[in-house]
Design brief:
It is built from 11 helices and 15 strands. With 329 residues, it is an alpha/beta fold. It folds into 2 domains: 184 residues, Alpha-Beta Complex (DHBP synthase); 85 residues, Threonylcarbamoyl-AMP synthase, C-terminal domain (Rossmann fold, 3-Layer(aba) Sandwich), CATH 3.40.50.11030. The two termini are 32 Å apart. The structure holds threonylcarbamoyladenylate and magnesium ion. The site of magnesium ion (MG) has 4 residues, from loops.
């Protein structure tokens, strides 16, 4: 695996053509670990079925769940998805950014059936992360990219996380520092009758509803055939078990804290990580997967989690934590 360091504070990486060999490798079917503003992605050319099969193999995904295709602009997205007025309004408001739209598939889109898992819809995102957009533009290909972790495990928010899970299975890894948002994109389907939230994520439900001017239906994650298979119950799982809504610490537990007031018996914890001492939900989202990984490395058998509010980005944080706490299959 070849590792590349990108300093986003300057434009030198862009003007120097530093990443041109990576764009070329993508065109040739390579798997690349790529930073986005949400989590690190495991990217491949979405029009290359063999390369996309490599994504599933590298992650050890049990089945061919559909993948998100990342493109550099709304214009590029319109080559693959059918945009109605609502889709355009959401794209105008939130792209580039942590929003994925599930739309009817455009006839003639070259995106592989392995990416859509044979559905007649597809998931599209224009990420805010400049490296990912640059790679899509420079390679001239939409980039399929799930989170760059082994299937079912904690999503990566640093290049080191990616290297630990997939270092021996990818050809290139681009390091642009920690992800600013830290949880996956919010997925909204506009392919059915009513706009539906398929996965809470880095963009709050409230922000989307404000632009749509109508309510978002919520996908039933207990459904036998989940609309977004990422919604399957056990997911984002650390090695330790996870106990939610903890108002106290049991001996031997690690504590994932939130807010300024730790539980009275926090001293019992073998390790502590506070998601946000000021109680800021955006900061907590950015720290979530790092905190879970760090406490998991403490060797504690159980991670207990202080209550976290359900509004704004709290919806995505609580969703990921419930999945981390779910019984393992
Ligand atoms: O933030 C993110 O979204 C990250 C970064 C890398 O962009 N990507 C990500 O991808 O989380 P992934 O593959 O882990 O999640 C894709 C989700 C899955 O839950 C999948 O079922 C859903 O998108 N999905 C993809 N295409 C779909 C479709 N046509 N209909 C319904 N759900 C779809
Ligand atoms: Mg994932």
């Amino acid at each position: 695996m070849q590792r590349w360091s990108v300093d986003l504070k300057s434009t030198a990486w862009r003007t120097s053509g530093l990443l041109a060999p990576v764009a070329e490798a993508l065109r040739a079917g390579a798997l690349v670990g790529v930073p986005t503003e949400t989590v690190y992605g495991l990217a491949a050319d979405a029009t290359n079925g063999q390369a996309c099969a490599g994504i599933y193999a590298a992650k050890g995904r049990p089945s061919f769940n559909p993948l998100i295709s990342h493109v550099e602009s709304l214009a590029a997205a319109e080559r693959h998805g059918v945009f109605d007025a609502r889709a355009r309004a959401l794209a105008a408001a939130f792209w580039p950014g942590p929003l994925t739209l599930v739309l009817p598939r455009q006839q003639g889109s070259a995106i592989s059936d392995l990416v859509t898992a044979g559905l007649d819809t597809l998931a599209l995102r224009v990420p805010d992360a400049p490296v990912m957009r640059w790679l899509a533009e420079a390679s001239g290909r939409p980039l399929a990219a799930p989170s760059a972790n082994l299937s079912g495990r904690i999503s990566p928010t640093t290049a080191d996380d990616v290297a630990a899970d997939l270092g021996d299975r990818i050809q290139h890894l681009i390091d642009a520092g920690p992800c600013a948002i830290g949880v996956e994109s919010t997925i909204v389907s506009l392919a059915g009758q009513r706009p539906t939230l398929l996965r809470p994520g880095g963009l709050s439900r409230e922000a989307i509803v404000a632009v749509l001017g109508e309510d978002l239906m919520t996908a039933d994650s207990d459904d036998a055939a989940p609309l977004a298979p990422g919604m399957l119950t056990s997911h984002y799982a650390p090695g330790a078990t996870v106990r939610l809504e903890a108002r106290g610490v049991l001996p031997g537990e690690a504590l994932l804290g939130f807010g300024p007031v730790p539980p009275a018996d926090a001293g019992l914890a073998v390790a502590c990580f506070n998601l946000s001492e000021s109680g800021d939900l955006a900061e907590a989202a950015a720290n979530l997967f790092t905190g879970l990984r760090r406490l998991d490395r403490s060797g504690a058998a159980c991670i207990c989690v202080q209550p976290i509010p359900a509004h704004g980005l709290g919806e995505a944080i609580n969703d990921r934590l419930r999945r981390a706490a779910a019984p393992r299959g």
